[in-house]
Amino acid sequence: MISAVLPTYNRAPIAFVKGEGSWLMAEDGSRYLDLGSGIAVNALGHANPALVQALTDQAQKLWHVSNVYTIPEQQKLAEMLVDRTFADTVFFTNSGTEAAELAIKMARKYWSDKGQPDRIQIIAFEGAFHGRSTGAIAAAGSEKMVKGFGPLMPGFTHLKWPTCTADHDAIRAAITDKTAAVMIEPIQGEGGIRPVPDQCLKGLRDLCDQTGALLIFDEVQCGMGRSGKLFAHEWSGISPDIMMVAKGIGGGFPLGAVLATETAASGMVAGTHGSTYGGNPLGCAIGAKVTEIVSDPAFLDAVSAKSAQFRQGLEGLVASHPTVFDSVRGQGLMLGLKCKVPNTDVVKAGYAQHILTVAAADNVLRLLPALNIPEADIAEALRRLDAAATALEQAA
User: Fold this and answer.
1) In this predicted model, what pLDDT tens digit does every residue of 260-292 receive, in sequence order?
2) Fold of 16-34+298-395
């Protein structure tokens, strides 16, 4: 039977019916250890009691009214985010893609209102992923995402991922009097779990300060505690002008946001942007509970401790299976295994061991567990990954 769903995904032949913590239950009753978390979305695991309660309490009161009216839950979450970050103002979306669209508009509108409407160029980087809208794929620029979709939104310059002085010299040379902003993920997710070195983020901040270009961080995947800080850029000690957030902020409920300084957002006055569902009471009630939990310093310390445990075990796997794995990369609980065999083979071998992982570019296996994963589940994950690698070696 042909599925009624548009066939744009290469889906695994597994259907899940229930989740609890770091585990998912399939239709046949079998249990899988989830190291993907819906691609970094289920930050607090499946069916987290605190989030279920927040959803239930709000659902019994009010779901949707639209942004024609003041939404108290939206105001509460916005204030929580402003209090905990560099930002002065927040706009709520339903996804990371929508956040990317607004970030692009905000940067260009800023310069238009300053009397420089031709300053529209945005510098982005190879390997980037900012979503699937036409603007977001233009920002990423990869052939895989843009081929066949006609003329792209103009105004993007794509540069090498910044890791050294030569790369920063190229960025400096690319910034002109037409450059509106520099947009980058502090840790690339889809691009292969590639952190930008702290000195590079500091260098980008300096370049933007020198030239007036706005600095946009995409923390859709690496934000909300995943790096061991509330937001990954905090490790470098610098801040952006605009930041995109989604995925983990809703703990599984569709929610995104754009955070910005008052200056960067100055062009976004009444009527310049909107969203029917963005910032609805349901999403914001859940987002407030996620933010309350994840921003607790003790919680973030635990993420770092679990990261150290997990990373040490992964280094052991690399040493034990040198024909399967090459190295470990990443930060916090946003980790990757660079593979020597096709990473999709490792994903499939994991299915046989009832463990779920996510492939990424550069032949990397993404490991994105719930941030509150128990230590016992980390140990079990390492055991199952070891079994998957052994099975691949025996089949070779």
Assistant:
1) 999 999 999 999 999 999 999 999 999 999 999
2) Aspartate Aminotransferase, domain 1 (3.90.1150)
Residues forming CATH 3.40.640.10 domain(s) in the chain? 50-294
Record the tokens describing residue 276, joined without a space: 């029917």
Residue 1 has pLDDT above 70, yes or no: no
pLDDT tens digit sequence for 226-247:
999 999 999 999 999 999 999 9
Class of 50-294 per CATH? alpha beta
